[in-house]
Amino acid sequence: MASHKVVTTWKGGMRMESDNPSGHNLFIEADPEFGGQGQGLRPKALMLSSLAGCSGLDVASLIKKMKLEVDDFSIDVEGELTDEHPKYYHTVHVEYHFYGKDLNESKLQKAVDLSVERYCGVMEMFRKFAQMNIKTFFHNS
């Protein structure tokens, strides 16, 4: 069974440094209202970035395999937090935006669907605790 391990170390104040199996590190920090100094990523928002990154890599791989012409694409993710502690995302909105000339919308939608429904493990984890709302937008130039 595969596993991942990260080591996260306190760097003083409200700042942590976390390693990654890739060999790159990142800093995690509290909001300024809770003592952060604006030098790190927020933990919950980092989860949203992980979701977008996981699905984005799936879609990028599928774009290559399907030999699709896409100038650019982005993924906007917004999470709605519960009101009570511990606060967690109860609803997450994911928007895929594709840009280019003569986009093959049906194949791009298939790439998104494959990521959302089959390949993205982070998406599957989110489904365990949040309602997922997925939309795709095509911006033909």
UniProtKB/TrEMBL annotation:
Q: What domain of life does the UniProt record list for this protein's source?
A: Bacteria
- InterPro entries to which the protein is assigned, alphabetical: KH_dom-like_a/b, OsmC/Ohr_fam, OsmC/Ohrsf
* This protein's name: OsmC family protein
* Organism, scientific name: Abyssalbus ytuae
